[in-house]
Amino acid sequence: MIDVLVVGAGPVGLVTAIHAALAGLDVAVIDPRVGTIDKACGEGLMPQALEHLCGIKVNPPGIDFIGIRYIAGNKSVDAKFTKNPGRGVRRTILHDQLRNRALELNIKILDGKVRDIIQENSHVEAAGIQCRYLIGADGLHSTVRSQLKLNIPPKKNTPQRYGLRQHFTIAPWSNFVEVCWLPDAELYVTPVDDQTVGIAILGAETMDFWTIIAQYPELEARLRSVDPASKLRGAGPLRQRARARTLGRTLLAGDAAGYVDALTGEGMRMGFEEGKAAVESVLTNNLHTYESEWRKITRSYRILAGGLLWASNNRLVRPMIVPVAKTLPSVFTRIVNTLG
């Protein structure tokens, strides 16, 4: 029997396993995806996320950015980070760096799928493996969350949101992550290396990538003459709700624990902190503390993402988001630094 089995070998799962190993626990990670895992992701690591990674001796290469720039039409407003920069990092590079660190710590990374979870008073069994605790870090469409019947179905008539992402071979033109607010979508431009930018779009399921790009003529002009550096990928629906973060001897971390939207760019930061908090609750054999810690970790995100979603879905309020941020730059900067 091992101490902890982590389901999901994405960044949050690997960070969780690394924290467990550093704490002296016998840990394994299981995932049906073999090799480097890619995902539709904005790929911007906010300063706190980057600091967290450096704290576990992972310092992925990429391009540093100094803040967030909101754009709408001919209006823009910048919010600079007050301490350290963030970093744009290709998801595949981040995964490889985390995987290598996990292997350095002798963490077992297993190829397999969890189909049944059997919980006993003293242990959990999944995929033929017995463990004292199981941590589900298997993403938006978490198998662990589903098997524990912790899913909350989406409300009827609630608009679902999705994400698209593709890279282009072009030198970054800004040291900010640019967020362009369009009539029906948000468009994120993140530098990820000296010759590559990632373009992520958040909006409705039916959105077309180039139709959205065409609404930002300056960006369309830059991209039309350059080659794609990756395949177009999608993700969603983004909104996922869970009844609780723990059940028996099982915990949920990252997107598996519940997710509002990618609007604030905090997914990695929160997931890393949740993984660490989950391990700390395992170390004390007191899973009840994890639910309150999860709420503390995600509070600012849930408030701001929920507010921005409401504003973005309101056709009268949405056009005011960037003008208001421009009118109150100190407030905008404070919000960005709170999240970062």
Number of strands: 20
**Uncertain runs:** none
Q: DSSP strand (E) fraction? A: 25-35%
Shape label: globular
Fraction of helical residues: 25-40%
Helices, by number, come to 10
Which CATH class applies here?
Answer: Alpha Beta
Helix-strand category:
alpha+beta
Mean pLDDT over the residues: 94
In the CATH hierarchy, the architecture is 3-Layer(bba) Sandwich
Radius of gyration: 20 Å
Distance between the termini: 38 Å
Number of domains: 1
Q: Fill in the CATH topology.
A: FAD/NAD(P)-binding domain
CATH homologous superfamily placement: FAD/NAD(P)-binding domain
Largest sheet: number of strands, sense, barrel closure: 8 strands, mixed
Order of helical and strand elements: EHEEHEEEEHEEEEHEEEEEHHEEEEHHHH
Describe the structure.
The chain contains ten helices and 20 strands. With 340 residues, the chain is α+β, with helices and mostly antiparallel strands. The chain has a single domain (2-156, 237-339), classed as FAD/NAD(P)-binding domain (3-Layer(bba) Sandwich), CATH 3.50.50.60. The strands form four sheets. Strands 1, 2, 8, 9, 10, 11, 19 and 20 form an eight-stranded mixed β-sheet that branches. The relative contact order is 0.18.
Short description:
The chain has 340 residues and is an alpha+beta fold. It contains ten helices and 20 strands.
Question: How would the blueprint of this fold be written?
Answer:
Layout (H helix, E strand, L loop, with lengths): L1 E6 L3 H12 L4 E5 L12 E2 L1 H9 L7 E3 L1 E6 L2 E6 L5 E3 L2 H14 L3 E4 L5 E3 L4 E3 L2 E8 L6 H5 L3 E2 L9 E8 L6 E6 L4 E8 L2 E8 L5 H5 L3 H7 L9 E3 L5 E2 L3 E2 L2 E3 L14 H17 L4 H26 L7 H7 L1 H11 L1
Parallel strand pairs: 1-2, 1-11, 2-8, 5-14, 11-20
Antiparallel strand pairs: 3-7, 4-7, 5-6, 9-10, 10-11, 12-18, 13-16, 13-17, 14-15, 15-16, 19-20
